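Page 42, continued from yesterday. The earlier attempt failed because a stray header line got pasted into the input along with the sequence. Redoing it now with the clean sequence only.
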Amino acid sequence: MNPHRPRRILALSAVAALTVTAVLTGVHTASAADTLISQGKPTLASSTENGGAPAAAAVDGNTTTRWGSAWSDPQWLRVDLGSTATVSQVKLTWEAAYAKAFQIQTSADGTNWTNVYSTTTATGGTQTLSVSGSGRYVRMYGTQRGTGYGYSLYEFQVYGTYTSTPPTSGPGYVMANPPVTGVVPSTAVPPDTNPPTTHHEFQMNCSVSRTNLNDDPIVFPGLAGASHSHTFMGNTTTNANTTVNSLKAGSTSCITPGDKTGYWMPTLLNGDTAVQPVGRQTIYYKSGVIDYRSVRPFPEGLRYVVGSPTASLEDFRNHPGAVEGFECGDLSFNWDIPANCAPGTQLNVRFQAPSCWNGLHLDTPDHKSHMAYPVLGVCPSSHPVAVPMIEFKMAWPVSGNMSNVRFSSGRGFSFHYDVFNAFDPPTLAALTRHCINGGLQCDPRGFDLYKPDRGAALNENYVLP
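This time it went through. Structure tokens are written below.
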């Protein structure tokens, strides 16, 4: 935050307070002309001003939250409608920091753009624009700011009709049985505690279980060898033919026997040599929402992909789950693998998963749409069920000249990972309740070293007592 901008600091404090008390509106379905089709959809921006103004805040239906950009030109905000739509209207609700010159653009692929509206004389406020175009992606592309600050949108609303109604069942959809319905995202703020609650998490410590296997049972189920090489952790049986039942019947490399989840990520390569993490790696289970008391365990069989092998550096840098990027030695917040790491150091990455579930699907065709990231600590109404937020913290023993270091999926910003939940349900429930809902900083036993009087969820063998 720029120290010369007290106005925005006060505004953000108000936004944070209002966000957790606002009643979020529901997502409208596309069934007629001029229907709102952007609300709750995935967003991406060229930049964000700070953690209090994320891209997703512009499509959350909440006019007390906003997206804010860096203080430079050009900047853009993009929404992914999920499938091709005919767009008839775009409504922009600006904060005081508005765009004087901008275009509204549509795209079929998120790369090639067509202008459907352009102006150089906008004055901010609320703009309702009649447009005519089609595409899966719609963005506001700002070329001149109206103030000395960045671009700031309370809401970016796209209206229209889908060329074909987005399906909610069929091939690629795995239905939850039973579904979780009737959940309203919690906007409550947990009360202060004594001693203070500073964490709400537990960790799994899991070592590599399978290496250099060209399988991906989520993206390429049943197709052995169809994927780029992956490094697997957790379940020791994971392969292209993996199912919930095969995971449950397998064993695990995690210190907690009840965690038979399959975790995997692209293999790190130094030239043509695979580099594997050494020893147990840390996989955090945290609260991604402000009301950590509302987090409930994953349903058995939930699976999803975090990040993308086709991501650009811009995608990775602005990803809502990119925590610290890559680091080694004194280098941090790198969005690609550093060119050099001090000899003897390790290459590390931290990357957060979405933690809001739609309650209906264990998987969807893109392996992402059933999950969403919270917006300023509150789950969107389209994905109201708060579940644990997984955070990978991986370390590879590679240093020195890093020019030949890459992932099997490509450059560092192609890093992604997969989660296929097969946690023993009572064990996961106990850890979630004791550590996340209980506001503790737990090890794999569910023990908080700083609050030993609270006890542990598991015994000395890491199983339920």
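Notes: Residues 1-33 have pLDDT under 50 and may be disordered.
Reminder to self: strip header lines before submitting.
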